[in-house]
Amino acid sequence: MRPIRNAGLLVLLAVFAVLGKPVTLSAQSAEPSRMQWWRDARFGMFIHWGLYAVPAGKYKGQEVAGISEWIMQRAKITRSDYEKFAPQFNPNSFDADQWVRIAKDAGMKYIVITSKHHDGFCLFDSQTDYDIVDATPYGKDLLKPLSEACQRQGITFCTYYSIMDWHHRSQLPKNGDMAKPEWNPTKMVEGEKSVYVDYMKEHLRELVVDYKTNVLWFDGEWPDWWTNADGQALYDWLLDLNPKLIVNNRVGAGRKGMSGFSDENSFAGDFGTPEQEIPATGVDSDWESCMTMNGSWGFKASDTNWKSSETLIRNLIDIASKGGNYLLNIGPKADGTFPAASVERLGAMGDWMRVNGESIYGTKSALFGPSWGRVTRKQGALYLHVFYWPSDRKLTIPALANQTVNISLLAAPTETLRVEKGDADWVIRVPTTTIDKVATVIKIEVEGMPELSKTE
Ligand code: H79
What we know:
Elements: H1 7-10, H2 36-41, E1 43-47, E2 58-59, E3 62-63, H3 71-74, H4 79-83, H5 96-105, E4 110-116, H6 132-135, H7 143-153, E5 156-162, E6 171-172, E7 187-188, H8 193-210, E8 215-219, H9 228-241, E9 246-247, E10 288-291, H10 309-321, E11 325-330, H11 340-356, E12 373-378, E13 381-386, E14 394-398, E15 404-409, E16 412-416, E17 419-421, E18 425-429, E19 440-446
Parallel strand pairs: 1-4, 1-11, 4-5, 5-8, 8-9, 10-11
Antiparallel strand pairs: 2-3, 6-7, 12-13, 13-19, 14-18, 15-16, 15-19, 17-18
Helix pairs in contact: 5-7, 5-11
Bound molecules: ligand H79.
InterPro entries: FUC_metazoa-typ, GH, Glyco_hydro_29, Glyco_hydro_29_N, Glyco_hydro_b
Family: Belongs to the glycosyl hydrolase 29 family.
Pfam families: Alpha_L_fucos
């Protein structure tokens, strides 16, 4: 496990206001590790799918406020009433290869799907019985074909798993009222905790061994009956099952808010999990921002508040420039298809990534944060992502210590750009017109790892 825990201390790369200020980078990048594929990937697909796709945000004719996968809590639905969605869940249009193809075409390298959300319903064929095979007319496994399609197409298959469970008998609503339940957070029934931990372990063994999940992305860890010691024990047990498994910090307790980083009181896991936010500065530990395209994780028919493709592409760049991964969510419909608005946006991201992907994959956080955009770098190249095209055709960056080999636009690679190298600053001459309104990438090919020349 990584030793660094304090988010306050982790914010080392706070240079996004001061052009040219050199920063210290830690050893994160040096060690070859099971995190390598994950660090290189930079872009993944989150999928929230379950029984909540059936009501899709509406209960008994009424719109229910909030994220759709929380409808059981938001509308205070009893266990037996919620179970009635199962006979209506029949995703006949589900096509695992098509889902994976859409993710892959968008430039995503991994998929994290809800194997079980807070509602307790499993999308895989478990030994336990509240699942897609045993409880729905569909009657077939969803995660096995998805895992296999991922393997066929070279996408890494990963799973989300909620510790809190609104369906398991071990847990009661916090108001103790099974007829008008307040499910969040659950209370543990006296003496039932070990029964529930065994139940989780059955699922987790299935996911790791039979479904070959590569990441376990825990959530719902905040009820008071789940402790850091429980998280540590589960983490150790999982790593024994598969020493290459990656597990997020939410396997442990003590997360204070949505910023998703661990402190000295919480479990660090293998990566931090900011939710619906991007850290203001670079962070020197492994982290991944998970975000929605509209306002809901699960499909919500009434939510048409979609972010633009421009926002989504710039979020990906922003996150990469700060050393993190972007886990971008899809909420499939109950019939097994992705909402058209999501597919459209992923298409635009794929178009951008096909031209500019090398400025995202395998990159490390920036050396500086300019006003005109963002910066990423890797061995042999510094990438300037220009959001705001300079009207004077000049882009200023702090001087690099490296020898330059070539400067070009990823969107027009045959043309070499001129640079005027001053002691403190370099000025790159760019074409008059914007190449890409969303983000034009200039590649400065250099010898070695880009570093700033000493200016202080
Ligand atoms: O699965 C999606 C959501 O359903 C779930 N996480 C994403 C990935 C989620 N989103 N919002 N919430 C859960 C709300 C939880 C909020 C809180 Fe808390 C739980 C507030 C208080 C307890 C977070 C955890 C902030 C403090 C502890």
